[in-house]
Amino acid sequence: MLAFAGSFASGWTGEKHFATWPVMANGIILAMAVVAYYFLARSLTTLHLKSSTRANAIGNDKKGVVSVVMYVAGIALSFMNPWTGFALYA
After folding, report:
1. 12: number of Cβ within 10 Å
2. pTM, full prediction
3. CA atoms of 44 and 52, how far apart (whole Å)
4. Using CA atoms, how far apart are residues 70 and 9, in angstroms rounded to an integer?
5. Within the chain, how many helices (H) and strands (E) appear?
6. What residue spans define the domains of the chain?
7. Angle at 10 between CA 8 and CA 13, to 5 degrees
């Protein structure tokens, strides 16, 4: 379902030439994917031992937290300038 929503938002963004609402919708979908990954990673580290290879590979997942912050900032900035919000997504 999320893949369909992402395809729709990307197509809508291109069709409307990077208007505010399509860029914002694209950012919301990207943020939902990052949040879902964050919960999956946390679940895997609690399921397996903290010293396991998988837990060590995931680590603190600072990139995941930074990604959520950047997507939320991009969504907010899309109201002022859609290109700025899109630049944060990239």
Report:
1. 15
2. 0.74
3. 10
4. 18
5. 5, 0
6. 2-89
7. 105
